Amino acid sequence: MSEYLEIYDLKNKFVGVVERNKFYDQIRKEYKETGKISKKIKSIRVIIMNSQGRIYLQKRSKTKAQNPGLYDKTVGGHVPAGYSWEMAVIKECTEELGLPVAIVNEKEFLLAIRSTDLSVVGLLKVTEKNNNFLSFRKDKLGDFIQPYITTWYLGYYDGNLRFKDGEAIGLETFSVKELEQEIKENPENFTEDIKYVFKKYKKYLVPLKNFNN
After folding, report:
1. Which single residue of 53, 72, 77, 170 has CA 20 to 30 Å from 163?
2. DSSP code of 54?
3. How many other C-beta atoms can be found within 10 angstroms of the C-beta atom of residue 203?
4. In order along the chain (213 residues), what is the average pLDDT of each group of 10 residues?
């Protein structure tokens, strides 16, 4: 079944709806010809930790067209046409990892994190809304830099995860120190998205017990 995406110009003006594969054909061609992309789509990016503060990263399948074989954020994906941000998060978490999630605001997050059974449901909050997030995409047909309208989410989950749609071939957890060392020693193994979020949100990547102090 085809997926359709809402398309925006670089000033965030809605310009139409396009089938996903057609959109990527268009922007690859534009980037090859001009060195830039003049259209944006909405995306969600999710970082999930367990209660010990270990960060879940996906190992992308080597058959993926973009960023094949690299460690990437826990969950990521497009916001299909007609979907809210929250529905896109629920869709991607369920499809990729069989992960049930609740999304709450900052105040609710601080309250709920102390009482939610994280073995049953993951708890997420928004950490950033970026209308011009530039993502470096390592692509088999030629690397490119793609602009997105992106919302980042951060949260915790202690239940079981399972791969459901072939997006990833593995899931690994890292402590902050381990991830920092791995990125330093083997940067080629990680997507630029992970390097970005680790640098910007390192102070938020903490064990759950930190919220009880």
Report:
1. 53
2. P
3. 7
4. 93 96 93 93 97 93 84 94 96 91 93 92 95 89 90 95 69 94 95 91 88 61
Residues 6+ apart with CB under 8 A from 57: 71, 72, 73, 74, 171, 172, 173, 174, 179, 194
User: CA 177, CA 28: separation in Å to the nearest integer?
Assistant: 37
Q: E strand or H helix at 182, and its extent?
A: helix 176-185
Look at residue 98 and give its three-state secondary structure: coil
Quote the pLDDT of residue 62.
Answer: 82
Model pTM above 0.90: yes
Structure tokens at 155: 């949260």
Domain annotation for the chain: domains and CATH numbers: 42-128+145-208 (3.90.79.10)
- The pLDDT, as a whole number, for residue 165 is 57
Per-residue pLDDT at 119: 95
At a CB cut-off of 8 Å and minimum separation 6, what does 172 contact? 56, 57, 59, 71
Residue 49: its H or E element: strand 39-49
Find the Cα–Cα–Cα–Cα dihedral 208, 105, 201, 191, rounded to 10°: 100
Q: Which of 174, 184, 178, 186 is nearest to 52 (CA)?
A: 174
